[in-house]
Amino acid sequence: MNEEIDLSTIKALSVRDRIQVVEEIWDTIADEAESIPLTEAQRRELDRRLEAFEASPTVGSSWDAVKSRIVRRA
């Protein structure tokens, strides 16, 4: 870990502010996602899932339906 990062300063932030820091860090990772190589197993799994979707595109739930179920359970 970079020594310039002071974890005690981060720990002193409110939970809301720490979440914001995490979101900002995640955004920088997502911007460079193509630089993270997939393992062969991950590639095969993605291919398998794509083939399953293409074979039966109406099976499963939309994101809106899944999100709605999650929100109702919370």
Summarize the structure.
Helices cover 66% and strands 0% of the residues.
What would the keywords be for this entry?
4 helices; 0% strand; single chain; 74 residues
Layout of secondary structure:
Blueprint lengths: L6 H6 L2 H16 L9 H16 L7 H11 L1
Give a verbal description of the structure.
The protein has one domain. The chain contains 4 helices and no strands. The protein has helices at residues 7-12, 15-30, 40-55, 63-73. By secondary structure, the protein is an all-alpha fold.
Using only CA atoms, what is the Rg? 19 Å
Topology pattern, helix = H, strand = E = HHHH
Q: What's the rounded overall pLDDT mean? A: 91
- Compute the number of strand runs: 0
- How far apart the termini lie comes to 35 Å
Main beta-sheet strand count, sense and barrel state: none
Count of helical regions: 4
- Indicate how many domains the architecture comprises: 1
Shape: flat
Give the amount of beta strand, in percent.
under 5%
The helix/strand class is: mainly alpha
Helical residue percent band:
55-70%
Unreliable residue runs = none
